[in-house]
Design brief:
Number of helices of chain B: 3
Shape of chain A: globular
Distance between the termini of chain A: 64 Å
Number of strands of chain B: 5
Helix content of chain B: 25-40%
Largest sheet of chain B: 5 strands, antiparallel
Structural class of chain A: alpha+beta
Radius of gyration of chain B: 14 Å
Largest sheet of chain A: 6 strands, mixed
Radius of gyration of chain A: 23 Å
Strand order of the largest sheet of chain B: 3-2-1-4-5
Largest interface: A-B, 31 and 25 residues
Distance between the termini of chain B: 34 Å
Oligomer: heterodimer
Shape of chain B: globular
Number of strands of chain A: 21
Strand content of chain A: 15-25%
Strand content of chain B: 25-35%
């Protein structure tokens, strides 16, 4: 794992001290709220419905046992004993007090963590494949790239006041687990015909009120040119991005309004100029970062014990993924217990995860954008012990990738921007489909729920997407179908009028029954059936009365 | 009461704690919506907003919300968003719903 250099440590410590001073001045009244708000946002501190919220970056979703344990300690000392893991691979504390936040940041800095650039119109925490460095299908670990971008973008003087927030995701695998096509910049690591490493660069992806799939602006960018090219994209966006309307300020709108070709030409011109003005990244720095992400010392293969219990087998079937080392496994720990809050872990659970990582799994953990925690390097012989401990801690729900593994934003239970609640909808769906045999029969299905148009819950790329709205003072839920966040990315299509909170889950049940009726065989997933048949049979299930009157 | 005017109260978040507060008859900020000062006319609402805005170092983000009144004239929120702010989240027994019990 990457460790802070002296520069990093000094920088983060100075930032904590600076923010401590800013809080003191705000409390004393020498900073107004208008002056203070952008400063607190730059340090990850929001004011939500019931309290402040501190959003802590987990760069490219990677953390070690000590860091996870520190999150547990922070949640107990200054919050309510739990943390919420988000679709941006961050962790949020929902109940901090203003005066405590500098101490929380100091406690984070001690374990090389911070909350910088988790808000504001800057380059946000860079996300990456949560199976990075472990996936069997990986070409190259994306995290050195993500770390390089983090170092380049942190406090970048030119890009601290962009027209709007800016998100970058990196994947090193052809199977896109990082939703790269819904980011301002999506990087996919590839090789050219000669085998030289580089990136396929997509721009202009994004969800929110104008969802768009990112488009390839450069088929192949040599690896060494990455930062000069990103600098060019940011320069073009910073100059051309609209500042007159925050809803039209993202890069996707610039690409949409001015065409990909025009934006590409500007980027290439800026890139050519940068090639003369900016030094390439020092290869020694890159080599140093890459060395920090060297694979752990994998243990030699030993005979794994036979897997006996049915519970363990079920968990392995759903929650364990092939590792690039055959006698290792990637274990996904579901933070979606039936009826629980998606993405939440108690302090005690965080400590169990830290222990498991340290004891059995080379001291590494990942936060996935699907709001689960991953143990990326588990020797298969340890799976029974890991499972047993997870079960004791209420962390062994075998539902990863199934209908109850739901992404849900905090929604109106916490978020000041929300227009409706998300969490109770996720809870109700999971409870309705609680039976695991039924879930397995339904097969791979991604339900994603957002409590407002900003789409933190990624509803546009859910196979079934749910968007909570306020319709004349009542919560109302729109359903979208056929979204996909992977390498075959697609924006879901709105099925029809919204549902009341009471009518929504019965409608989802009808939808699932319709899918089970029309699928060719159990192996045909919901998404595959939708792609084969189009929306008609699914809409008919959602809106039976309309379907009947159409037929009449 | 002016025709078509809904009663209004002033709310904000406390600067230090971040929790939800309401502006009272006494010209103070309270955690309890039952103590909220109610404006029954547009003019009274303007005056309430101006009065509530005089505490920039105690509260953050002052705004007016529509209220419904019970038989004793005590206010409760008209909109579900404000009902959640008054109560706390629905997934845990946290926030005001939990505090009220211990305050009694």
């Amino acid at each position: 794992m990457y460790s802070y250099t002296e520069f990093d440590r000094d920088f983060v410590a100075a930032r904590v001290a600076e923010f401590r001073g800013q809080v003191e001045r705000r409390v004393a009244g020498s900073l107004t709220e208008d002056e203070f708000k952008p400063l607190r946002l730059m340090n990850g501190l929001y004011l939500q419905l019931h309290a402040y919220m501190l959003r802590v970056a987990v760069p490219y979703g990677t953390l070690n046992g000590r860091q996870m344990r520190r999150l547990a300690d922070i949640s107990e000392r200054w919050d309510k004993g739990y943390g919420h893991f988000t679709t941006r691979q961050n962790v949020q504390f929902n109940w901090p007090k203003l005066r405590d936040v500098p101490d929380m940041l100091e406690a984070l800095a001690e374990v090389e963590m911070h909350a910088i650039q988790t808000s504001g119109n800057c380059i946000r925490n860079v996300t990456a494949d949560h199976f990075a460095g472990a996936a069997a299908d990986e070409i190259e670990d994306p995290r050195p790239t993500a770390e390089l971008i983090r170092q380049w973008s942190t406090d970048h003087p030119e890009f601290t006041w962009l027209p709007r927030k800016f998100k970058v995701a990196v994947t090193g695998s052809p199977n896109d687990r990082a939703v790269t096509k819904s980011h301002d910049i999506g990087l996919r690591m590839v090789r050219d015909a000669e085998g030289a490493p580089g990136y396929e660069v997509s721009i202009g992806g994004g969800l929110g009120r104008t969802p768009m799939i990112g488009r390839v602006v450069r088929e192949f960018l040599p690896k060494a040119e990455l930062l000069r090219y990103l600098e060019a994209i940011l320069q073009v966006y910073n100059l051309g991005g609209r500042r007159d309307n925050k809803y039209k300020a993202r890069l996707k709108i610039l690409v949409h309004e001015e065409s990909l070709e025009t934006v590409r030409a500007r980027i290439e011109a800026a890139f050519a100029a940068n090639a003369m003005l900016l030094k390439p990244v020092d290869p020694e720095i890159v080599a140093g970062i890459e060395a920090a992400f060297a694979p752990p010392g994998f243990e030699p293969a030993v005979d794994a014990p036979p897997f006996v219990s049915a519970g363990l087998r079920a968990w392995i079937d759903t929650n364990v993924t092939a590792h690039r080392v055959p006698h290792y496994a990637i274990a996904t720990v579901s933070l979606k217990p039936i009826g629980g809050t998606p993405g939440d872990a108690t302090a005690e659970q965080m400590r169990v995860l830290a222990d498991l990582a340290e004891t059995y799994a080379h001291d590494e953990l990942r936060v996935s954008h699907e709001q689960n925690i991953v143990l990326p390097h588990v020797p298969r012989r340890h799976l029974p012990a890991v499972y047993a401990r997870l079960r004791e801690a209420g962390l062994a729900t075998p539902n990863v990738g199934l209908i109850s593994d739901i992404i849900a934003c905090p929604g109106m239970d916490y978020c000041a921007l929300a227009t409706a609640r998300s969490i109770p909808i996720a809870q109700e769906i999971a409870e309705t489909f609680a039976d695991l045999d039924r879930q397995r029969d339904i097969g791979p299905l991604k339900i994603k729920i957002s409590g407002c148009i900003n789409a933190c819950g990624h509803h546009h790329v859910g196979h079934i997407g749910i968007l909570g709205l306020d319709r004349a003072g009542v919560e109302n839920y729109q359903v979208t179908l056929g979204g996909d966040g992977t390498e075959t990315a697609a924006i879901g299509e709105r099925a029809g009028p919204g549902f009341s909170a009471e009518a929504l889950v019965p409608a989802i049940e009808r939808l699932i029954e319709a899918y089970l009726d029309v699928r060719l065989e159990p192996g045909e997933s919901f998404l595959a059936a939708y792609r084969r048949l189009g929306p008609a049979p699914f809409k008919a299930a959602l809106y039976p009365a309309e379907a009947r009157s159409d037929a009449a | 009461m002016a025709r078509g005017f809904e009663p209004q109260i002033a709310t904000a978040n406390d600067l230090l704690e971040g929790d939800v507060v309401y502006f009272t008859e006494e010209g103070l900020w309270s955690r309890d919506i039952a103590e909220a000062q109610v404006a029954q006319t547009a003019e009274a609402a303007d005056a309430l907003f101006a009065q509530a805005g005089a505490f920039p170092n105690q509260v953050v983000g002052v705004y007016l919300i529509e209220a419904v009144l019970d038989a004793d004239g005590r206010a409760s929120p008209a909109h579900f968003r404000e009902a959640f702010r008054m109560r706390g989240p629905s997934n845990y027994f946290h926030g005001k719903q939990a505090e009220r019990r211990t305050d009694v």
